[in-house]
């Protein structure tokens, strides 16, 4: 009778231990399950297009949920709006063009942000034209008209790009326009070239129905990063664990997107039915070679020496003054080699 009672007690104890996760378990799953979900907002670099699909992929695949984060993804409209949203506390994380943001920081216009991961290891801004213009090198732009987004980083960096390419920038007429008008201007041959993003190639080919020629700024401005994920120094100080979990999850989404462009484009199309899967897949495939660091470092890594070089390039071009340090625009602790 005593042996039977002991056996029953032992069985009940074992069951209780199994349910509570004790008895040799480290309690990790229970700790995660017991935590409240962090709710944050994130704004894409520009709308709901292929280059930004990775955020929705991270949400759809459950990477944010696994990290204990619920993310409200908003559609961005470029650096100015995204930095404004971050400053106003409307979002806690954002994607934007890193070089353009550095220019704003260097001018003292907005400094309350830090990049935590790179989306593109190279700038994707380019000169783009159609084959029938016979523009095949930067020097062919002499005497031509190029349209760019008014005040865009493409316009701001053109003089530095032109000089390094052996072209006098003063010999090119620059027309600053709304970014959404660029492809139409080129398709109608109202300009000779565009200053735009490499990822717009497919859209220009569709609009112009002609072969597109691309002259990447990265041929001459090699150290510039493309888009980056940013947050505020205040959030980094207050909750570095949240920043780390978000960064890890969103980069998992980025890695999955370039490895599975069809699925990523399908996920994006569910969010934005008016944006075709073909367009999404095309953008993802075009950006893929620019996502992984060349030296085998993890996706998202930002090399401090390259960031310092970016600052030096912008200073030498007269776009920012002296004094800006790499640590003032990037927190290097979240993605390490």
Protein traits:
single chain; 337 residues; alpha/beta; five-stranded mixed β-sheet; 10 strands; disordered N terminus
Architecture overview:
- There is one protein chain.
- With 337 residues, this protein is α/β, with parallel strands linked by helices.
- It is built from 14 helices and 10 strands.
- A 5-stranded mixed beta sheet has the order 2-1-3-10-4, with helices on both faces. It has a 5-stranded mixed beta sheet with strand order 7-6-8-5-9.
- Helix 3 crosses helix 12 (261-271) and helix 12 packs across helix 13 (277-287).
- The longest helix has 20 residues, at 240-259.
- The protein is globular, with a radius of gyration of 24 Å.
Helix content: 40-55%
Mean pLDDT figure? 87
Number of helices: 14
Strand adjacency order, main sheet: 2-1-3-10-4
Give the biggest sheet.
5 strands, mixed
Reading the helices and strands in chain order gives HHEHHEHEHEEEHEHEHEEHHHHH
Mass-distribution shape: globular
Strand content: 15-25%
Could you give the count of β-strands? 10
The end-to-end span amounts to 63 Å
Oligomer: single chain
Query: Poorly predicted ranges (pLDDT <50, ≥5 residues)?
Result: 1-33
- The structural class is alpha/beta
**Whole-angstrom Rg:** 24 Å
Summarize the structure.
This protein is α/β, with parallel strands linked by helices and 337 residues long. It is built from 14 helices and ten strands.
Secondary structure topology:
Layout: H1 2-20, H2 28-34, E1 38-43, H3 53-60, H4 63-66, E2 69-74, H5 79-87, E3 93-97, H6 98-106, E4 114-118, E5 125-130, E6 145-149, H7 153-164, E7 173-177, H8 182-187, E8 193-197, H9 201-208, E9 212-216, E10 227-231, H10 233-238, H11 240-259, H12 261-271, H13 277-287, H14 304-316
Parallel strand pairs: 1-2, 1-3, 6-7, 6-8
Antiparallel strand pairs: 3-10, 4-10, 5-8, 5-9
Helix pairs in contact: 3-11, 3-12, 11-12, 12-13
